[in-house]
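Before the break, one more example. Copy the sequence into your notebook; we will annotate it together after we see the structure.
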Amino acid sequence: MLHDSNKNERISKTEQFLQECAGWLRLLDFFKQENSYLKTRLSVVMDHKRDRDFLNEAEHYQNLFILKDEFINEIAKDAKMHEDKIKQALLHKRPLEDKLARQQQKLRNEVEHLEKEFTRMKNDFNKELLAVL
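Here is what the structure looks like once it is written out:
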């Protein structure tokens, strides 16, 4: 339960932001692992498939995976810095600044975008592998 009638047990907005950041960092770590797995699968298929069309597609996906790694790392770095700022606000019992709330929304949007794009890329990749096998 997020909030109780007892005010001492209510979760603050700052604590909620902190928990959301922790969730993003776990999700981003999962995406890093999943992206690594996709690159490994691509490598295994490339060991057995050498036709020109597939090699072009393989290069396309390899580039996508590299770009996703960079985007994931960038968001993770931003999320970690943001998490540190929220921890400082919580530690010093400072109210959240509007700037932190705007940054939280920006990161939320970026993570949602990454989730959608990553899922689409993974599904397309799986379909592509099935088509060439």
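The longest helix spans residues 52-91. The chain has three helices and no strands. Try to locate both features in your own notes.
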